[in-house]
Structure formats: C-alpha cells, structure tokens
Design goal:
0% strand; mainly alpha
Length: 183
C-alpha cells in the first residue's frame, strides 16, 4: 500500500500527461478540465477520505463535513475504494452535503437547493463533453490510487459483513440438534 506522499506525487506527476491525452477530445479546454479534475480527484476527493489522511486534512476546517463519511465507511470498503462506486459515492455525499448546506443557509442569502440542481442540469445540457471529461478525470485518479495500493478489489462493506454473519448464525440455530454430528 502506498503512502500519502506517494499518492500525492503520482497525482501531481500524471495530471498533465492525463490532460494532454484528452487534448484531441476538446482541445486545450478539455485538456485543462481533465487535468484539474484529475488533481481534484487525487488530492481532495481521494478514496482515503474514509480515514484521517492528507486529503481529509486539505479540507481545512471543512474536514468536519467528512466525519460522518469516515464513521459510516470502513477503510478500503467497496463503497470507498470500489471502482466507479467509490467515486460516485464521494460525489453523491458531497452533493448531498451541498444540498443540505444550501437549504440551511438559504435564509441568509445562499442559493436554494433547487437553484443548485438547475445549474448542474444546465451545465450538463450545455457542456456534456466537459462534464464527462471531468468525471473521467476524477475516476482515473481514483484508479491510480487503487493501483498504487496494490489491490483494486475493495473489502466487503461493514453492513454487508454484519448481515452475512447474522444470516449464517440463524442458519446454524435452525439446524436440529439431532442432525449435528450425525453421519
């Protein structure tokens, strides 16, 4: 498993080459979008947000917002380190936080959640290629992280392990005692 500094160094070194690979898609705007998304994915939205890590610390005072995420998810679980589902989960969690904060701060002039959703929808309608390129950059940086950790297959989520253990215990209890040990 790579250290935090190894993850950071690889992210910084590979962001520009990744962006240049995207040059043929949308020119310099697409290249910049992909490179910046790669950096954001590796440095701020890393799979290691499920621990006290460098990416968590980079959020400064806002790292408190990631505390529930860390409490619910086990490190290297499918929901945090799983290909595609990990990035989707972090984006959904961040989006959900943005909606809740917008709702709470709306009385003080923040845009309401409906405005945020409208802006996201307009961005998708006007620039779908750039949005897809940004999502690709986020996911590619997550894959870099998983490959550096040496195991892109994540651990089973805690909730699924607990449920599986409970069902195994129930099956054992249901077995009649006269059949245990009979041949």
């Amino acid at each position: 498993m790579a250290s935090g500094s190894s993850h950071d160094r690889a992210t910084w070194v590979l962001a520009l080459p990744f962006g240049l690979l995207c040059w043929p898609v949308l020119g310099w705007i697409g290249s910049a979008t992909a490179a910046v998304a790669f950096l954001i994915g590796g440095l701020l939205l890393s799979p290691d947000l499920d621990t006290r890590s460098r990416p968590t610390g980079r959020w400064g005072p806002l790292q408190l917002l990631w505390w529930p995420y860390r409490r619910v998810l086990r490190h290297r679980s499918l929901l945090s380190h799983g290909p595609f589902i990990g990035t989707l989960g972090r984006l959904a969690y961040g989006g959900g936080l943005a909606m809740v904060l917008a709702w709470l701060l709306a009385p003080w002039g923040a845009p309401p959640p409906s405005d945020l959703l409208l802006h996201a929808h307009q961005l998708w309608r006007q620039h779908p290629s750039l949005v897809l390129l940004a999502l690709t950059g986020l996911e590619t940086s997550a894959w870099l992280h998983l490959i550096q950790d040496g195991d892109p297959v994540a651990k089973t989520p805690r909730l699924l392990r607990v449920l599986t253990r409970r069902s195994r215990r129930r099956r054992r209890r249901r077995r009649p005692s006269n059949q245990v040990g009979r041949r």
